[in-house]
Amino acid sequence: MLSHVYVGINDFEPAFAFYHAVMTDLGTRLRFSDAAKPWAAWQPAEGARPLFIIGKPYDGQPATCGNGQMVALMAPTRAAVDRAHASALAHGGTCEGAPALRPHYHANYYGAYFRDPDGNKLCVVCHDAG
After folding, report:
1. Membrane-spanning residues where (predicted)?
2. Using CB atoms within 10 A of its CB, is residue 35 exposed (0-12), middle (13-18) or buried (19+)?
3. What span, in angstroms and rounded, lies between the C-alpha atoms of 120 and 47?
């Protein structure tokens, strides 16, 4: 369904450190990184799409986050949710909801919420039992 998601960032080095740590915890692999552009992208361990891309906005204006916008990333396990949340906080993110079961979504919804250093809201979630 998705080809790629592009998230605007303002300062490449801390944004790359933040996202590289989180994406590693989720089992993705780096597809490319170019600090001169600046942008970077990750892809699933198996397959080429969808891509998750960070970079400066194409219009040259500062990146801003939108109210009500969020990107939710799949985690292979609940432990990966825990690791990704911890990595996010260790790399300049802020907590928007600690890892936990959220049965009001469904019985096995285990997720965590955080913001990146630019204020973009993200979720990491595992939908599997146990």
Report:
1. none
2. exposed
3. 26
Q: Are strands 110-115 and 94-101 parallel, antiparallel or unpaired?
A: antiparallel
Token output for 109: 């919804």
pLDDT tens for each residue of 24-73: 999 999 999 999 999 999 999 999 999 999 999 999 999 999 889 999 99
What are the CB-based long-range contacts (under 8 Å, 24+) for 63-69? 63/8, 63/9, 63/10, 63/118, 64/8, 64/119, 65/115, 65/118, 65/119, 65/120, 65/121, 69/120, 69/121
